[in-house]
Amino acid sequence: MGLSPEADVMIAQTIQLALAPVFLLVAIGNIIGTLTQRLGRVVDRSRDLQREHGVTEGMEHDDVVREIRLLDSRIALINQALRLLVIASLAIGVTVVLLFAEEFAHVGLNPIAAATFIVSIGLLMWALVLFLRETREATEGLRVPESYLERERKL
Description:
The chain is mainly α. It contains four helices and no strands.
């Protein structure tokens, strides 16, 4: 026993409607992958510096502490961005479920589906702002010391 032609059309339309949230979910997955890689590198560098912390003194020790503080801040930003992206992904999943539930139950869920989609976009934007802050901190922390640039020399 198959579905009626009208039901087939409804399912096809719902799948088409659900494609935008699903594409957003793929994009968020890619961003999560990028942030996870960055987090791994930052954590590895932090562990290296923590080993140096106990064996350095003076200015060298101060440099280690400064970099550890920067890495701690970056870790916090990445973790916060990841948390927001996961919540956004869950909101997108709820959006898709609501779209299908509305199509089959006809109970007025479209406004709620729209709201969950808007929430997911907002969370994505917030996570991207945190990602921007993290990359900015990373860039500022990677500035080459002026003494290495030897600007007085003509090369």
